[in-house]
Amino acid sequence: MGGALDHLRVVDFSESLAGQYCARLFADYGAAVFLAEPEGGSRIRGMAPMSEHGDSLQFFHLNTGKQSLVVDQGSAEFERLLAGADVAVLPVGAGADSLSAKYPALVVVQPSDFGADGPRADWQGAEIVLQALSGMMHNNGAAGREPLFGTGNRASLASGVAAYLGTLAALFAQTRSGQGQVVKVDAAETAAAMCFPYVMQHIYNGTVRQRTEQAVQAGQVLCRDGWVCIWIYNFRWHALLQALDLLELEQDARFAEPIARRTHWDALFAIIQAKVAQMSAEDLVDILQRAQVIAAKAYRPSELIENRHLTARNYWEEIDGRRLLGPAFRLHGTPRRIASGAPALGSGTLPAWPKHEPAAGEKPVDGSPLGGLRVIELTTAWAGPMSGRVLAYLGAESIHVEAPNRVNSWRLNKDAPNPVNFPDRQPGVRWYDRSFLFNSQNVNKLSCILNLKTEEGRATLRRLVAVSDVLICNFRPGTLKKLGLDYDSLKSIKPDIVVAELPAFGISGPMSGYAALGPTMEMAAGMSAMIGYPGGQPEVTGPSYLDPIGGFNAAAAILTALIHRQKTGEGQYVEVPQVEAAMHLIGPEILKAGETGDDPAPNGNRVNFASPHDAFPTKGGDEWIAIAALDEAQWKQLCAVMEQPQLAEDTRFSTLARRRDNEDELTQIIADWTIGQDKHLLAARLQAAGIAAAPVQNPKDVAEDPYLAHRGFFTELDHPDAGRHRHPGLPIHLSATPGSQRQAAPPFGWHNRYVLENILKMPPSVIAVIEASDAMATEPLEGA
């Protein structure tokens, strides 16, 4: 079988990480992709880290599988490429709208940092700037210290995934309408979309989460060969103590109740630390995971190369004698096939493509790209619901299925209602319908409650499968099979069904049964080992950074399979191992560590390519500004704005190497200057001078952000139980078939009757039997 996208022709004119990653994903799944470069080559060719061969690992990672052409924009070759292409990925300065008008069959994709118009269109968008503005950075690091931006270029590459799935949605619509359109995605808006639950919480009740107030559920211990993160849910407390042979702590008054445990959290982890100090980190994780306690080792990037789990999954590939990361997601019917490594400059041959003319067709249903598709979600928490939410935003009908005895964990049913999670800090009678967490992720969906442990529940779901296109599941591997709902069973009902599972570690391999959350996936993916203060423990970022990334990757994988189905009529099974997908966001760093055996040591926000590159205190409590002088010109401009031009000539700071050698002194000088200033005004002043800077925004700042308002990021929606509130959106903008937020998240079981009557078209007598049985409910069972 060929690649899922082997009928597509893509031209990548972009000069951005997001654009080149977007196009790389097309190449992974069979599209013919040409990287059109200027005479001197793409700027990404010179971007660190550099390999032992002397070339850029960033370029290698983003451009494997492409061909390179040296093309002048405006030339005859340029026109031929565009006229014959299905997709063109553009730099931010190109005229996307005019090109779309000239080539109406073409899908024109324009990733950027801040877009070509509106507030911040001329801002410098370094990764630290994107993370500071998003609200993510505000959550990271220790209270009282500078917040941490993270590692790598994760916001830019995440926006590349968003651009890819937005492009696929436009192509899906194009097949029906015959018309192309423009797809725009900003990295800054994408970064904000990765962090919006806390923004939603602020909108609901004014809460501004501080690092001093983070709920304690996790901690870290140092084993003999590395750090382990342990996530302690209250309902797993006994299991944790039993697994560690510490049952005596159940009688210890300091730890007997959840509130007491949080008060004595450091003492608890000191006891656990003493117990596990001589253990292997992987052994400890295995013991805890067998007890269904979530835990993960903080793997260093170099450790991933020989990782037993990745090896068992045949993850690593080789191309042209060089190591290559495995696929971000696995389409079992149309697997990734890489034909070549990153191309030499100008080594490709100009294709003799026929001109791609627009075709006559029907308009997409309701003007949305995925209108007419139906999705079943067997999902919980963030990543799974996020994938369904993306598809619903783009027009699919998404049915969120829960069991009355196993509801979505983000309804917060397992603990006593905490006022901080609800509108106006009032849980209300139906608090499970008022949680900011659940309501942030389930916009545009229908709620249908089915107990899949009953035959009536399974039979009803099977009938739903027969009239659906996609089923998404993010429970542990094997759950669908236990329910008799594995892919082969579902395929026998609906031969062209696309079934997507989101196991953290994949469906095979020694760690496949491990449960995970965003923070523990960040540990397992090699990210946390690179994030932290010098000499400190690994850190995690955001409320749960890799969960929304997993949702984006899953939506991208599903759309890839749907494009293939649209072409061939064939469905397939889709596997989205979230840790493996996340590794692509730090692919160059992993490849570098694999070559050298050396791992970057955590060093706060400091990096080897810029100085200063850090967060500095500003006016107010725990208020910060991120400042990065990305080159010597920006450093001199910073000195001028500080009204200390002599610093540029100071021998301690006269070169990047000297500034890095004297970074403590430089940090103090800049901090003394920023400490009394307003972070927003100062950032705007620095950006106006051409210096990369941004306020480190908290949830209130993000909710009031003028750039996000200009992008239409927020939509006011009415919820029957939670009331009317603004809802954060998604960063994918299609010119002809735009996505939208049409209705608030559904109350529990709100659409039971609608599903039975309108979708399944059951007679009233059958509906009455199902509604009266244990298969369906309109409120969760006690303790669900």
From TrEMBL:
Residues 342-366 are annotated as: Disordered. Residues 354-365 have a biased composition (Basic and acidic residues). GO terms for molecular function: transferase activity. The keyword Signal does not apply. Gene3D superfamilies: Crotonobetainyl-coa:carnitine coa-transferase, domain 1, formyl-coa transferase, domain 3. Keywords: Transferase. This is Acyl-CoA transferase.
